Amino acid sequence: MGDDPLTFVKKFISVGLLIFSVVIVSALIFDEQTKLSQDVHPALAFIAMWAALIWLSMVEGSQASMVGLPPVDRELYRESHPIAYKICARSHSGDNLDRY
Protein backbone atom coordinates (compact mmCIF):
# COMPACT_ATOMS: atom_id res chain seq x y z
CA MET A 1 0.00 0.00 0.00
CA GLY A 2 2.89 2.34 0.63
CA ASP A 3 1.26 4.04 3.62
CA ASP A 4 3.25 4.98 6.66
CA PRO A 5 2.35 3.24 9.95
CA LEU A 6 0.39 6.23 11.29
CA THR A 7 -1.87 6.29 8.22
CA PHE A 8 -2.42 2.55 8.55
CA VAL A 9 -3.44 2.97 12.21
CA LYS A 10 -5.81 5.82 11.30
CA LYS A 11 -7.46 3.73 8.58
CA PHE A 12 -7.70 0.71 10.88
CA ILE A 13 -9.36 2.77 13.63
CA SER A 14 -11.74 4.40 11.13
CA VAL A 15 -12.88 1.08 9.72
CA GLY A 16 -13.21 -0.34 13.24
CA LEU A 17 -15.41 2.58 14.32
CA LEU A 18 -17.52 2.25 11.18
CA ILE A 19 -18.10 -1.45 11.83
CA PHE A 20 -18.87 -0.74 15.50
CA SER A 21 -21.41 1.94 14.52
CA VAL A 22 -23.15 -0.30 12.01
CA VAL A 23 -23.36 -3.15 14.53
CA ILE A 24 -24.79 -0.87 17.23
CA VAL A 25 -27.38 0.71 14.93
CA SER A 26 -28.33 -2.70 13.52
CA ALA A 27 -28.80 -4.09 17.03
CA LEU A 28 -30.99 -1.12 17.95
CA ILE A 29 -33.06 -1.65 14.82
CA PHE A 30 -33.66 -5.33 15.52
CA ASP A 31 -34.49 -4.59 19.17
CA GLU A 32 -37.06 -2.09 17.86
CA GLN A 33 -35.44 0.78 19.73
CA THR A 34 -35.54 3.15 16.77
CA LYS A 35 -38.55 5.11 15.57
CA LEU A 36 -38.56 3.47 12.14
CA SER A 37 -38.26 -0.08 13.44
CA GLN A 38 -41.13 0.57 15.86
CA ASP A 39 -43.36 1.77 13.01
CA VAL A 40 -42.47 -0.89 10.43
CA HIS A 41 -40.91 -4.35 10.47
CA PRO A 42 -37.26 -4.26 11.66
CA ALA A 43 -36.08 -5.97 8.46
CA LEU A 44 -37.51 -3.11 6.41
CA ALA A 45 -35.79 -0.59 8.69
CA PHE A 46 -32.52 -2.51 8.27
CA ILE A 47 -32.88 -2.41 4.47
CA ALA A 48 -33.70 1.30 4.64
CA MET A 49 -30.55 1.94 6.69
CA TRP A 50 -28.36 0.17 4.14
CA ALA A 51 -30.08 1.87 1.22
CA ALA A 52 -29.43 5.24 2.86
CA LEU A 53 -25.77 4.37 3.52
CA ILE A 54 -25.22 3.24 -0.06
CA TRP A 55 -26.98 6.31 -1.46
CA LEU A 56 -24.94 8.61 0.79
CA SER A 57 -21.67 6.99 -0.29
CA MET A 58 -22.59 7.51 -3.95
CA VAL A 59 -23.50 11.16 -3.33
CA GLU A 60 -20.26 11.77 -1.44
CA GLY A 61 -18.24 10.11 -4.21
CA SER A 62 -19.97 12.22 -6.83
CA GLN A 63 -19.28 15.37 -4.85
CA ALA A 64 -15.58 14.49 -4.61
CA SER A 65 -15.48 13.91 -8.36
CA MET A 66 -17.24 17.19 -9.11
CA VAL A 67 -14.72 19.10 -7.03
CA GLY A 68 -11.66 17.13 -8.19
CA LEU A 69 -12.24 16.88 -11.94
CA PRO A 70 -12.33 20.53 -13.13
CA PRO A 71 -8.53 20.82 -13.56
CA VAL A 72 -8.42 17.57 -15.60
CA ASP A 73 -8.82 17.90 -19.36
CA ARG A 74 -12.20 16.35 -20.19
CA GLU A 75 -10.94 15.05 -23.53
CA LEU A 76 -8.81 12.53 -21.62
CA TYR A 77 -11.89 10.58 -20.55
CA ARG A 78 -14.34 11.50 -23.31
CA GLU A 79 -14.32 8.07 -24.99
CA SER A 80 -13.50 5.87 -21.99
CA HIS A 81 -16.13 7.42 -19.65
CA PRO A 82 -18.85 9.05 -21.79
CA ILE A 83 -21.38 9.44 -18.97
CA ALA A 84 -18.85 11.18 -16.72
CA TYR A 85 -17.88 13.38 -19.66
CA LYS A 86 -21.49 14.48 -20.23
CA ILE A 87 -22.10 15.13 -16.54
CA CYS A 88 -18.90 17.14 -16.17
CA ALA A 89 -19.55 19.09 -19.36
CA ARG A 90 -22.86 20.25 -17.95
CA SER A 91 -21.86 20.79 -14.32
CA HIS A 92 -18.54 22.50 -15.04
CA SER A 93 -20.01 25.05 -17.44
CA GLY A 94 -20.62 28.57 -16.19
CA ASP A 95 -20.85 29.00 -12.43
CA ASN A 96 -22.66 25.69 -11.76
CA LEU A 97 -19.81 24.30 -9.69
CA ASP A 98 -19.46 27.53 -7.68
CA ARG A 99 -23.17 27.44 -6.84
CA TYR A 100 -22.84 23.79 -5.79
Provide the descriptors you would attach to this structure in a database record.
mainly alpha, 5 helices, 100 residues, flat
Plain-language structure description:
The structure is a single chain. The chain is an all-alpha fold. Helix content is 72%, strand content 0%.
Work out the radius of gyration: 20 Å
State the share of residues found in helices, binned by percent: over 70%
Q: Tell me the strand percentage band.
A: under 5%
Which class best fits the helix and strand makeup? mainly alpha
Q: Given the structure, what is the number of helices?
A: 5
Largest beta sheet, briefly?
none
Mean pLDDT metric: 89
Shape: flat
Distance between the termini: 33 Å
What is the element string, with H for helices and E for strands?
A: HHHHH
Instruction: Outline the low-pLDDT stretches.
Output: none
Q: Give the strand tally.
A: 0
Write the layout of secondary structure elements.
Elements: H1 5-30, H2 35-39, H3 42-68, H4 82-91, H5 96-99
Write a concise synopsis of the structure shown.
The protein has 100 residues and is mainly alpha-helical. The protein is built from 5 helices and no strands. It is flat and about 50 Å long.
